[in-house]
Design brief:
168 residues, alpha/beta, Chitinase A, domain 3, 2 domains, two-stranded parallel ribbon, 3 helices, elongated
Amino acid sequence: MSVAFRRESDDEHLEPVFELPIPPGPNLVTERGLALIRAQVAACEDKVQALVTAGAEEAEIKKARREQRYWSTRAATAELVPAPDGEAVGFGCSVHFRLNGKARWITIVGDDEADPAAGLIAWSAPLARAMMEAEEGELVDFGGKAEAIEVLEIKPASVGPDGIYPVG
């Protein structure tokens, strides 16, 4: 039989499964972000253990272990950033700004903690990067437009019992 028609196993023809992508750059975290990552690690460990105990299918266990590796890597590489002083826009600050005539508050947090709908923007996002190091009253360029953002107010993020909140 020709080698072209011989097949060792069905696994040879499966799509490769890659690791979950890690955001580039340092893994900066707030205290809340570090707690969230640690909670994810614990939840993943529990999930893997439950799947193994229940005798789940190998594919499901592999998927859970892949997620566990992601969160374990994020925990191992986390760099806790001290609370900011609020003098200039930086990691962990809440910023009141005006863009396109609309004023709003955001808080700059780590990649895994970001939730734009809740006003939590990753430090690596273009909006956050544009405002970094700006001071109150400063105009900064954004989206190819000169002086597109006006920084109105800067405060250290306020932390409540269940998370970080943009002030305002």
